[in-house]
Amino acid sequence: MSDTWFKEQIAPGGVAEDGCHPDEAEALQSYLNNKTSTQEAAHAITQPILSSDDSGANLHRLWNLLQDALIELSPTHVPSLITLLRAIQDLPDPDLTSKPTETAPRNSGFTWKGLPKFGHLWADVHKQDHWRNDLSTALSSSPTFSDRLKKRQELRAAHIKKANVESRLAVANIGSIPLDWGYDAIADALELDTAVLDFEIPAAREWIEVA
Q: Which residues contact 76 (CB under 8 A, 6 or more apart)?
């Protein structure tokens, strides 16, 4: 597994303020390289959040890291990532009463249960119909038929993988990803007049096979 992907997660486009904590990236890389157990990784990857001045405000950095891993890394890593997320979700609630902040006020009961904000972030970033615009742009901007075909295949594979990941998250009851998304995917494939069949039928099949 290349170090480049993890370095980019720490400083996307060279901007460290937009990335995850270096210790989070290191913990994930060690786990995916089978150097640590699931429980060890769950504790290590969450420590920067618990040690920060405002734990709630920094959750999105960890969730971005793990969601990008689910989408961008090899499909062979998805089961391990799902297992890690479940372990994080099952961590005991930390005592942050000595660190009241706007997003984690005193006695607010900061919890890992349900992976707070994970599902909302996923919906904002991955659940939109951006792939339709991406497909349209790719087909109109690619100069040759072979370029258009290659780009279509890449976008189709990404769309199908996203459906597979979402279905696995929903079945595992992780991050408030609802099974209703599966019903929506099947309905879109069967009923939408504008359905892109070579994208939406395989995506619906992922939901049916997994869920």
A: none
2 residue type, one letter: S
Helix 145-171 and helix 180-191: axis angle, to 10°? 140
pTM (predicted TM-score) = 0.90
Asked whether the beta carbons of 27 and 44 are under 8 A apart, the reply is yes
Number of Cβ within 10 Å of residue 146's Cβ equals 9
pLDDT digits (tens, 9 = 90+) for 172-205: 999 999 999 999 999 999 999 999 999 999 999 9
In whole angstroms, give the CA distance from residue 132 to residue 50.
39
Burial of 128 (0-12, 13-18, 19+ CB in 10 A): exposed
